[in-house]
Amino acid sequence: MEEKDFQHVSVLLNECIEGLDIKPDGVYVDGTAGGAGHSREIAKRLTTGRLIAIDKDPDAVAVAAERLRPYPCAQMVQSDFSEMCEVLSRLGIEAVDGILLDLGVSSFQLDTPDRGFSYMHDAPLDMRMSKAGLSAYDVVNGYDFRELCRVFREYGEEKFAPLISKNILKIREFHPISSTGELVEIIRRAIPAKAQRESGGHPAKRVFQAIRIEVNGELSSLSVFLDNAFATLRPGGRMVIITFHSLEDRMVKQRFAAYCKGCTCPPDFPVCVCGKKPQGALVNRKPIEAGEAEIAANSRSKSAKLRIIEKL
């Protein structure tokens, strides 16, 4: 794949770089390097510092490695961001000054039909960021009614999950569902026309999101990452995370709040006996969102929310 073919516009780029508060001699991790948009801006600001860029998509790894080649401080690693601590351990790094995570699907992945991420193209059902393991085809054709309903409800917040799941099982009696186009039609036929008109968005959007999250283990990866990553930050270090849907944002918000909480004594205790101190402080009380100009230039930034925490 040619480097020029991998196009991706980095969301909230300036806000992320400012939020990281980069020190020229610091150690930084970009857990979702993608096309290296954020990584390159971090690397530009380092002198004696170090950048570890991580991505699970082999296409992204190849492109990002090439784009980071002019920066000796940068190193590209193919891995899932949930394995960040293991990656750092292998590299002999015990603590870092900043961590960035951009949880959006890259424009390249969405716009490359044969990756099967988009409901706008007819393509093989795939959606694997790593190009390995469980695929969308496996989920759609292998999960039973209850499992399909769970995925569509939990990860897509789709209220018509039972109807859609029932329709999928009906079609599967005759032949496997092998393309995104066929799945879109099944979803479209399952959702009442009135509900489609009232929602305004594409009827397949929630189901495709749900299947993608299931295929790539996105929420479980985020949970593992959040459990471990904060501990690797040095005091004064920052974690910067961009989310694109409510399930991710809720998890990040709750975990950040727990790091900032400190005392866990019952409210009726006159004095603290647990001795727990806050581990972190929020840099921005409310999530940072894209401005009108960025949304006009890149419509995919509309749902982005940026949260930043600093380790005390």
Describe this structure in words.
This protein is an alpha/beta fold and 312 residues long. 44% of the residues lie in helices and 14% in strands. Strands 3-2-1-4-5-7-6 form a seven-stranded mixed β-sheet, with helices on both faces. Helix 2 links the parallel strand 1 and strand 2.
Largest sheet: 7 strands, mixed
Which regions have little confidence, pLDDT < 50, spanning 5+ residues? none
DSSP strand (E) fraction?
Answer: 5-15%
Q: In percent, how helical is the residue content?
A: 40-55%
**Helices and strands: which structural class?**
alpha/beta
Distance between the termini: 43 Å
Average predicted confidence as pLDDT: 94
Described by the principal axes of the CA atoms, the overall outline is globular
Number of strands: 7
What keywords describe this structure?
globular, 44% helix, alpha/beta, 7-stranded mixed β-sheet
Could you provide a short overview of the structure?
By secondary structure, the protein is of the alpha/beta class. 44% of the residues lie in helices and 14% in strands. The mean pLDDT is 94.
Tell me the layout of helices and strands.
Elements: H1 13-20, E1 27-30, H2 37-44, E2 50-55, H3 58-67, E3 74-78, H4 84-90, E4 96-102, H5 107-111, H6 136-142, H7 145-156, H8 161-172, H9 180-190, H10 193-199, H11 205-216, H12 218-232, E5 233-243, H13 246-261, E6 280-282, H14 292-297, E7 305-311
Parallel strand pairs: 1-2, 1-4, 2-3, 4-5
Antiparallel strand pairs: 5-7, 6-7
Helix pairs in contact: 7-8, 7-11, 8-9, 12-13
